[in-house]
Amino acid sequence: MTDGALSDVVVLELATGAAGPYAGKLLADLGAQVIKVEPTRGDPMRAEPPLHHGESALFNYLNENKLGASLAISDPRVDELARHADIVIHSLRGKEADALEERLAAVQPSAVTISLSPYGRSGERARWQGTPLSEWATSGFHYIAGDPARAPLALPGFQAEYHAGLHAGVAALAGLWHARETGEGQRIEISHQEACLSDHAWVTTMWTHMGQVQRRTGAIYAKCLDGHVYMFNLAPYPNLFVLMERFDLLADETLLQPMNWMARFPEVFAALSEWAATRTRQEIYHAAQELRIAVSPVNTMADVAASAQLAAREWFGR
After folding, report:
1. Mean pLDDT to the nearest integer, 100-109
2. Exposed end of the chain (fewer CB within 10 Å): N or C?
3. Which pTM value belongs to this model?
4. In the beta sheet, which residues pair with residue 35?
5. CA 234 to chain CA centroid, nearest Å
């Protein structure tokens, strides 16, 4: 990509896996020139399924819009690339990471260096190894996701790494702003686990502010004529009663109190389910959006592929 908000930014990506390359992808999509340096043996993500014509579709997704090179970290040519970099992203750990960052600081002191690791590079978990499953579990999401009567659920793929990569992208931009204002580079350390914990609204705050451990509560999916819709139960929605023409519930002012709303939500959800049963997903979605009610259709992959909005944005054609 040759234009965009970051067209004057050079990023040196020395990270393997998903988190660092995802951060690099976000910056590349904003126009940055991202140079991905793989180990001489190649990024292990190249073997990650699904494969298409022998190539990893995930690897290609994470690394589109980037330039590529295959070099050992110790290769002097890495220093030459770093000399031109505004942002450096890496996934090294321990003494190897420390040595790299010292080297980079000597070559380009104004660069923003982003370090990504499963549990951070300091503290008692610094040496812990991580997998997508273990990182998602230790971030609390297995404890809160799924039906309370069944085993916990895990989303597929590299969920924790994507959270960390998003944080890394934002941190890189904040560091870049500072560097351009002051000429000072920064070293920013990001833990996959802490990124996930920061991204959930209640897991940590329920404990720190209320002394409660969040648990699985089950899904809020209302069945409709052609599938399901989901309602984000964040706050009382009096307009929901208007939409459903349940003026008896609208007249009950106690339901407008958040604690009462939560306590009686099964009653509200039962009313929504009864109303939704005779309507389609899109009908419910658009009607709810008009009234600023957080309801969305539960889409299948076929729905996503047929989305007029995504087609208009050329989402799949880039």
Report:
1. 95
2. C
3. 0.84
4. 12, 67
5. 20
Beta strands in the chain (DSSP E): 10-14, 33-38, 51-52, 55-56, 66-70, 87-90, 112-117, 186-191, 221-224, 227-231, 295-297
> Which CATH entry fits the domain spanning 10-199: 3.40.640.10, 3.20.20.140, 3.40.50.10540, 1.10.150.120?
3.40.50.10540
Q: Which fold has domain 221-312?
A: formyl-coa transferase, domain 3 (3.30.1540)
pLDDT digits (tens, 9 = 90+) for 6-20: 999 999 999 999 999
The pLDDT of residue 318 is 54
For 59-88, b where at least 16 C-beta lie within 10 A, e where not — what string?
Answer: beebbebbeeeeeeeeeeebeebbeebbbb
How buried is residue 297: exposed, middle or buried, by Cβ count under 10 Å (0-12/13-18/19+)?
buried
Collect all residues with Cβ–Cβ distance below 8 Å to 100 and sequence separation of at least 6: 14, 73, 90, 92
Which residue do the tokens 């560091």 mark? 175
